[in-house]
């Protein structure tokens, strides 16, 4: 099969949802850190709520892409599978993976926020102040506090910018699509029908050094750069896909 036929549309859709989420989270963060920009002012409940909101965005989207990819592959093979089982597998995978991904996104955000605040402190205060001394200075000088807060907000705006949403969108469209095909391959294997996956790239000037050597390579064949795992994209922003062919002998699906 060719690349995901509606990839651009899917990427735009999830990127818009993630962008809206990012803007809301940034606004809430700055409200919590209004007087003293520090993660200590962000309660643990904020991150729990954020993760739940992310799961609500990611889970239905991942399930939809999974099922679309499963349906496309199924149209190319002359053997049917129980679609109810495919739906169940899609829902189970989307729920489990979205929870994991939301946690990873949150952890990365927290680390990036902490780094941004440290860098802002370093750019404003080079005297090696303690946190207590820093807070005293910010409390006593409203103009300084305003400048410092603005600098932190600008740095966090880059953390929550559109580039990050776009990267997640491309990566996760690729991942969910691959998983949808895996779902069909696994169901066919239960009937004794085995398929092998062939890594595909656009084979153009944008193909990266990771994916280029994998083009046309069968799963679990070769070593080093030519070895690959169908269960995940090769890297963030991966735009590759897989083709499936009937195997001549049983394989690990």
Which key phrases capture this entry?
253 residues; mainly alpha; 6 helices
Please specify the SSE layout and strand pairing.
Blueprint: H1 7-32, H2 44-74, H3 83-124, H4 131-140, H5 142-159, H6 162-190, E1 195-200, E2 241-246
Helix pairs in contact: 1-2, 1-6, 2-3, 2-6, 3-5, 3-6, 4-5
Number of helices: 6
Order of helices and strands: HHHHHHEE
Radius of gyration of CA atoms, rounded to a whole number: 23 Å
| Biggest sheet descriptor | 2 strands, antiparallel
**Number of DSSP strands?**
2
Q: What average pLDDT do the residues reach?
A: 86
How do the strands line up in the largest sheet? 1-2
Task: Walk me through what this model shows.
With 253 residues, the protein is mostly helical. It has a domain at 7-167. 62% of the residues lie in helices and 5% in strands. The chain contains six helices and two strands, in the order ααααααββ. The protein has helices spanning 7-32, 44-74, 83-124, 131-140, 142-159, 162-190; strands at residues 195-200, 241-246. Strands 1-2 form a two-stranded antiparallel sheet. α4 crosses α5.
Briefly say what this structure is:
With 253 residues, the chain is mainly α.
């Amino acid at each position: 099969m060719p690349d995901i036929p509606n990839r651009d549309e899917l990427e735009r859709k999830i990127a818009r949802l993630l962008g809206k989420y990012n803007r809301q989270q940034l606004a809430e963060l700055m409200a919590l850190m209004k007087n003293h920009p520090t993660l200590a002012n962000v309660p643990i409940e904020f991150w729990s709520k954020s993760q739940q909101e992310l799961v609500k965005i990611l889970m239905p989207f991942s399930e939809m892409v999974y099922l679309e990819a499963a349906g496309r592959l199924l149209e190319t093979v002359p053997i049917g599978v129980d679609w109810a089982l495919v739906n169940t597998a899609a829902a189970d995978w989307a729920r489990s993976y979205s929870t994991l991904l939301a946690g990873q996104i949150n952890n990365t955000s927290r680390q990036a926020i902490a780094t941004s605040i440290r860098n802002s402190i370093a750019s404003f205060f080079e005297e090696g102040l303690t946190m207590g001394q820093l807070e005293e200075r910010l409390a006593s000088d409203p103009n300084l506090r305003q400048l410092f807060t603005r600098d932190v907000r600008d740095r966090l705006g880059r953390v929550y910018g559109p580039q990050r949403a776009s990267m997640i969108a491309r990566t996760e469209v690729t991942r969910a699509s691959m998983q949808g095909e895996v779902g069909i391959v696994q169901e066919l294997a239960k009937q004794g029908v085995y398929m092998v996956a062939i890594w595909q790239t656009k084979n153009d000037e944008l193909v990266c050094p990771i994916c280029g050597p994998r083009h046309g390579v069968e799963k679990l064949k070769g070593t080093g750069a030519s070895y690959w795992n169908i269960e995940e994209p090769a890297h963030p922003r991966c735009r590759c896909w897989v083709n499936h062919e009937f195997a001549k002998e049983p394989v690990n699906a």
